[in-house]
Amino acid sequence: MIKSGTAEKLKKIPIIDLASGYQLIKDEIEKAVLEVLASGHYILGPNVSLFEEEFSKYIGAKHTVSCANGTDALLLSLMALGIKQGDEVITVSHSFFATSEAIALACAKPVFADIRENDFNIDPLKIEKLITKNTKAIIPVHLYGQPCDILKIVEIAKKHNLFVIEDCAQAAGAKLNGKSIGTFGDIGTVSFFPTKNLGAFGDAGAIVTNNEELANKIRQLRFHGSSKRYIHDYIGLNSRLDEIQAAILRVKLKYLDEWNLKRQKAAEYYNELFKNVKDVIIPSVKPNSCHIFHQYTIRLQKRDLVCEKLKESGVETIIYYPIPIHLQKAFDYLNCKSNSLPVTEKICNEILSLPVYPDIQRDDQEYIVEVIKKILKE
Ligand SMILES: Cc1ncc(COP(=O)(O)O)c(C=O)c1O
Fold first, then answer.
1. Alpha carbon of 65 to ligand 1 centroid (Å)
2. Is any ligand 1 atom within 6 A of the Cβ of residue 96?
3. Taking 70 as the threshold, does the pLDDT of residue 238 lie above it?
4. Residue of 66, 71, 196 to mutate, ligand 1, most atoms within 8 A of C-beta
5. What does the pLDDT average to over 158-172?
6. Does 23-113+120-253 match 255-377 in CATH topology?
7. Closest Cα to atom 8 of ligand 1
8. CA of 196 to the centre of ligand 1 (A)
9. How far does residue 294's CA lie from ligand 1's centre (Å)?
10. Thinking of the domain 255-377, which architecture would CATH place it in?
11. Per the omega criterion (within 30 degrees of 0), is the bond before 321 cis?
12. Phi/psi class of residue 354: alpha, beta or left (left: φ > 0; alpha: ψ in -120 to 50)?
């Protein structure tokens, strides 16, 4: 175990430091929240409309429809596209459970494509052979903040007349060729869960699209399928963003580019520190791709040992995600076999996400890498 500084005090480095992030913008946040409290307008009010406008402008999409969380954003998108029982949706098994859960909640069947080892994202070469007459959509995930190969996916989707819903839960502000992810497919979905790179102080989510008809339908679906009070055209959800969260997100959106840049700088510093550490595979960044490092995820053979020793040394790490979705009990009914997705299943044993957030200290990063190097030498 390595002790920091003058030796006695064990360092404590969290995987993410939400409380200190808050301190940096405390005054602005508190002012915004107090204004909402005093306004008496708490659901679908002016902050929600303004946030939707501002987020559309930021992303470069014509419409943003906010909702209660990123899972609902996926479900509302599937509902709006008419995905139903008997339909199949191609996605990845290496993601947060919600990506596939939303497909199942829409009564459709998730069909899993394997990922690429170098960027942890869906492998476009694995998609076409999974397409059947029941396939209606593809949900690629821009995992850890890195754009997936969305241009190829859109090309495949066009060829086979499929919808594309981009799961951008971990990648607000990430870009490919200068264009924001979420704007390549039919719909992009975002999560503003507090730990996300644009995080609310509670649950929140949004859908972005350039399609006005879809945006209007989603707007109705998030509010019990209603267009006018007590007039219901669809069976929908109660999935609205509240005014307090919208006001907070409006403040935080102004800082998003700055924070994403700081995450990139922190990632660059890790890369530098890991130079010549041959047992650690650092995250790769594709050309023309703006990876916003929602996570800094390394791969290493001695992952479990390193994870344990880092914990003993006061460093919190996380394995996103230890069990692939296709092998989760909840999806037993799909009868997926082990070894059916070799890359997904292999990397689950190798990945480790290290602390990364806009204001992570360089000496904390140095400490983390020193601990890892020491363990690897033993
Ligand atoms: C890739 C991915 N998709 C969807 C979600 C669901 O978002 P939420 O937690 O806001 O429902 C998450 C959240 O962790 C996620 O990481």
1. 16
2. yes
3. yes
4. 71
5. 98
6. no
7. 70
8. 9
9. 12
10. Alpha-Beta Complex (3.90)
11. yes
12. beta
Q: Is the CB of 70 under 6 A from ligand 1?
A: yes
Residue 143 vs residues 167, 206, 229, 296: alpha-carbon distances, Å: 8, 17, 39, 11
Distance CA 149, CA 288 (A): 11
Ligand 1 neighbourhood includes 99 CB (under 6 angstroms): yes
Q: How far is CA 222 from CA 104, 113, 132, 218, in A?
A: 18, 29, 30, 6
Q: How far is CA 55 from CA 65, 68, 205, 218, 271, in A?
A: 10, 16, 11, 16, 31
In the chain, domain spans: 23-113+120-253, 255-377
Q: Which of 62, 72, 105 minimizes the C-alpha distance to 221?
A: 72
Mutate to test the pocket of ligand 1, among 91, 144, 170 (most ligand atoms within 8 A of CB): 170
Q: Which CATH number describes the domain made up of 23-113+120-253? A: 3.40.640.10
**pLDDT interval class at 337 (50, 70, 90):** confident
Q: Give the pair of three-digit tokens for residue 125.
A: 């070469």
Cα radius of gyration (the chain): 21
Q: How many residues does the chain have?
A: 378
What burial letters (b/e) apply to 185-207, b meaning 16+ CB within 10 Å? bbbbbbbbbbebbbbbbebbbbb
Structure tokens at 366: 């140095």
What b/e sequence results for 319-341 when a residue is b if at least 16 CB atoms lie within 10 Å of its CB, and e otherwise? bbbeebbbbbeebeebebeeeeb
Confirm or reject: Cβ of 188 under 6 Å from ligand 1. no
Pocket probe for ligand 1: among 69, 72, 74, 96, the residue whose CB has the most ligand atoms within 8 Å is 96
Alpha carbon of 156 to ligand 1 centroid (Å): 25
- Which pair of tokens denotes residue 342? 């070799």
- Average pLDDT over every residue of 35-42: 97
Q: Give residue 3's pLDDT.
A: 52
When pLDDT is averaged across residues 112-139 and rounded to a whole number, the result is: 98
Ligand 1, residue 195: give the atom nearest the CA. Answer: 14
> What spatial distance separates the first Cα and last Cα of the chain, rounded to whole Å?
12
